[in-house]
Sequence to fold (160 residues):
Amino acid sequence: MIRAAAAMMLILALWAPASLARAGVYTDDLAKCLVRSASDSDQEALVIWVFAAMGSHPSVQAYSSMTEVQRDAATKTAAQLMQRLVTVDCRTASIDALKYEGPSTLEAAFKVLGEVAMRGLMGNPKVAAGMARLGDHVDSASIEALFKDAGIDLGAGKAK
Fold:
């Protein structure tokens, strides 16, 4: 139990957004529209594109069998998807966000869509089981001591 809790906390810390800046109302509306308009297969296409891009990094390239042709196809699919979402499905929300809050709204709104898509990926039982295996290799006593020193009882999940 403690291993699983420690592993999940570490995973959440690694995947947490670096900053939690507050978006404006128009950015929020655009993000909601993107999430509402992107189908499950659209979200999968975004995750595949992110995977393809990350798989290009020299540190992980050896672990991915994706070819350049497949990477290009994933990039093309993601580009067409993003274009469709902002110019067709969420056109009005995109115009309002750009007009009143500037170009950074697109990045912020797509970040929300990306987070939703990643949650879908992480929610898959096989992915969750693979991530939970991290706990098999964590020294639970040292993690438990860390939480104890911080005044957190892992059994209760509350600070003292």
User: Anything to note?
Assistant: Confidence is low (pLDDT under 50) at residues 4-21. Helices lie at 2-15, 25-37, 40-54, 68-89, 91-101, 104-122, 125-132, 140-149. The first strand starts at residue 152 and ends at 153. The chain has eight helices and two strands.
